[in-house]
Design brief:
Helices cover about 40% and strands about 20% of the residues. With about 325 residues, it is α/β, with parallel strands linked by helices. Strands 1, 2, 3, 4, 5, 6, 7, 8, 9 and 10 form a 10-stranded mixed β-sheet that branches. It is globular.
Amino acid sequence: MLVNRREVLGTLTAAAVVASSPVVAQDLRDMVNFVSAFPPGSGADFLVRLWSQKLTPTIPGPIVVLNKPGAMGFVAAEYTARSKLDGNTIFVHAGTSIAGNMHVFKNPPFDVTKDLTVAATLSRHSYMLVVGKNSPHHNLEELTQALRAKDGAASYGTSNTSSFLIAELYKQKANLEVVNVNYRTSADWINDLNSGALDFAVVDSIAGIGAAKQGTWRILAIGSGTRMASTPDIPTFNESGFPGIDVVSWWGALVPTTTPRPLVEKIHGWFGEALKSPETAELLKATGNDVYMTSLEESSGLLKSTAEQWKKFVEIAKIEKI
């Protein structure tokens, strides 16, 4: 089954309009909030709305997407952690990024590994190094040579923790002096990348694939150790001469840690049924995501183990805490 991303996005946009409309004659206790850490219409917000669409036939009552961008996901995470323990507030997010933040920030506002738990894992993807549509560079070797020639005057854009990590690992392995410019969202630096103000950027697969198909950016490499099943034509950093870079993010449905177990099991079942659908797999593939299903027991300790993994990443990449 072939899925056109533009058609899917149009469907989700329509669904978002319905979801954000006032609910008439509806018991508000049955309303389920999907919390998004991204602005409406951004690349990753697309994935949150994809899940709201897929679970609409399953979840009783309406699903409303609440956009809570800011602080690299901490605003949305804290909103979820402080929500009622009724199973009606679900943070649909890249668990890797929010767990990694525990070792990227000097003073995290709260401990996501203690205050949130994973009710269901959803998908896996990696991040892509991209250049602007007018860039003369068509592979990573060409870009690397050009960055070295700038002798410290080059810059790159990121808008999340995982992108920052991959870029720093690339800098280290290529022995580059490149300045990071952190943006609120990937949409904020499109003009800077295409104008040449930025030499490259590292983005999530959703934004990367969508922009590449539209001719806005050019993808040079992906940060997974081996090629992803959903993006088999995109070379890895390893293949491009920079071995040892293997950063794969997972998405999950997160809820407050003290949410009653029966409610967590119910949420796990909702997403599990959706993941079994071939249509869901195709929709995820269109965004550069591979299906990622785990048991509730496996997912329960995932935030903690991911945070521990990121502690090592930060040390290896010598990332200065924010």
